[in-house]
Design brief:
Elements: H1 18-21, H2 29-49, H3 51-63, E1 70-75, E2 79-84, H4 94-110, E3 116-117, E4 119-121, E5 124-126, E6 130-131, H5 132-139, E7 150-154, H6 160-166, E8 172-176, H7 183-189, E9 197-200, E10 214-220, H8 229-239, E11 240-252, E12 260-261, E13 276-277, H9 279-288, E14 292-301, E15 322-323, E16 328-329, E17 337-344
Parallel strand pairs: 2-4, 3-6, 7-8, 7-10, 8-9, 10-11
Antiparallel strand pairs: 1-2, 4-5, 11-17, 12-13, 14-17, 15-16
Helix pairs in contact: 2-3, 3-4
The chain binds S-adenosylmethionine.
S-adenosylmethionine (SAM) binds near residues 132 and 225.
């Protein structure tokens, strides 16, 4: 059910909670509940103290959209789309539709810059900084059959990949993301998707609370944000069923050696980056975290086709952080590549 305007801090909008659905041997329920309480307290504080969040919260509360107002679809195999359902397309519903359009427009604009996308909400095309559809096209064939599977997406941002995964009828989709603002996108979109989807606003490191539970874990755009990448991979290994799969996607540097760059500050304009591995190093991390069948299925130079500034992400982006004359990042580091790997437990 669509809970827009009611409560954006529950871990699910439908009342479904995977913690009550599965035996406790699969996770440390008390620890997870404690993390939820901490996250909720922090979110409540930020709703008052952080002007960006306070504004979005205010606009979110005003949305008041009825449950059956939207249909969910994937537009042109690219953008996550909410369109007005047939019931609201008659002339006498025009005012309602226009009012929703106005309210939702202000809400969506308050979420700028949109880092991941694209989305099409009513008639508004949200071209985000990152073309997540490009990443999706690279990983989709490596996922295998995910029908009836339990999947976690660590560092899920606004949930773009969860909405793409939902199409294939997984049993559970769990998004884990620390940044509170992205949760509002999930609260807008997920009630219109027929899937057991849930959101945990805690650190990816909390994957250590899960044991032999997930069939697949996505760890994309995240490993370089970790102070201790091998520990995270090891916890992911533990969280997977036997034969379960990890998909890792990471920033990387080119080297024949098993090394990682530890930037002194930003790397390619990005903060919070601890280690940028070579492909050999990333494989070695996976191996040392006990993964098997480690395979790199894509390696390529990052480019402004995939990451660029847009109207909905009016910020400095990829090309602003490249020193093309010297073939380096503006900080003087090797140019960023992206590596995509799959491995099993
Ligand atoms: C580069 S983005 C990648 C988003 C998405 N997974 C993708 O591949 O496009 C990294 C995301 O991880 C989140 N993040 C960073 N550190 C995290 C942590 N410790 N736990 C959970 N999420 C984290 C960020 O807020 C951000 O949304």
């Amino acid at each position: 059910m669509f809970n827009t305007g009611k409560n954006s801090t529950n871990s699910t909008s439908s009342g479904f909670d995977y913690l009550s659905e599965y035996p406790q041997k699969y996770f440390d329920k008390d620890a997870i509940l404690e993390e939820r309480i901490k996250a909720r307290k922090l979110f409540e504080k930020l709703k008052v103290e952080n002007p960006l969040i306070a504004k979005t919260e205010q606009l979110y509360k005003k949305l008041n959209i009825v449950d059956d107002f939207f249909n969910f679809s994937i537009n042109n195999d690219t953008s996550i789309s909410l369109t007005v359902s047939d019931k609201y397309k008659s002339i006498d519903q025009r005012n309602t539709v226009e009012q929703v359009e106005e309210r939702i427009g202000a809400f969506l604009r308050s979420l700028c810059p949109w880092k991941k996308g694209p989305f099409t909400i009513m008639d508004t095309f949200i071209d985000a900084e990152w073309r997540s559809d490009i990443k999706w096209n690279r990983i989709k064939d490596k996922l295998g059959n995910i029908e009836g599977k339990k999947i976690a997406d660590l560092g899920c941002n606004n949930g773009y990949f969860m909405y793409r995964l939902a199409e294939f009828n997984p049993k559970l989709l769990l998004g884990v993301e620390t940044y509170p603002r992205y949760r509002y996108v999930f609260d807008l979109i997920s009630p219109h998707i027929k899937a057991n989807m849930q959101w945990e606003m805690f650190s990816a490191e909390c994957i250590r609370y899960y044991h032999s539970f997930f069939d697949t874990v996505l760890c994309m755009g995240l490993i370089y944000h970790m102070r201790d990448p091998v520990s995270l991979l090891h916890s992911i290994h533990n969280s997977l069923v036997k034969g379960g799969k990890i998909i890792v996607e990471s920033l990387g540097i080119i080297s024949d050696e098993s090394i990682a760059l530890c930037p002194e500050g930003r790397y390619n304009g990005c903060s919070g980056i601890w280690f940028v591995p070579s492909l050999k190093c990333l494989k070695s991390w996976l191996k040392r975290a006990d993964f098997k069948n480690i395979e790199c299925f894509y390696s390529g130079k990052l480019s402004s086709e995939e990451q660029r500034s847009t109207k909905w992400a009016n910020i400095k982006s990829f090309s602003d952080f490249i020193d093309s004359r010297n073939n380096k990042t503006v900080e003087g580091y090797p140019l960023p590549y992206r590596f995509y790997l799959v491995a099993t437990k």
